[in-house]
Amino acid sequence: TYSDKSVKVTIPIEKYTESGFSIPVCVENVPDSLQISLIPEKVNIQFCVGLSQYSKMNMAQFMVIADYNEIADKKTDRITVLVRKYPESVFNIRVVPRTVEFVIKKR
To answer: Whole-prediction pTM value?
Structure first.
């Protein structure tokens, strides 16, 4: 058997800050015969990121979606907003508001 009496562990730590963007919401899975308008069209995403990565953050790294399948055949006036894409270096992501209103129009 092999045994050490002590082990040295190094854990890198970094200061972080909070940041955010106003991002347009993309609606997925909408049938070609329909058009959906969201109210509001943009949501705020807020997140924490290490100071070493802060200057590298931009809106293009994030994607916020609403899925039409969530509301198809349901009587509701709100749809949930989800963060579909984000950088690995961010954490504690929040979306405000979490749901948005929508209007469905036939094309």
So the answer is: 0.82
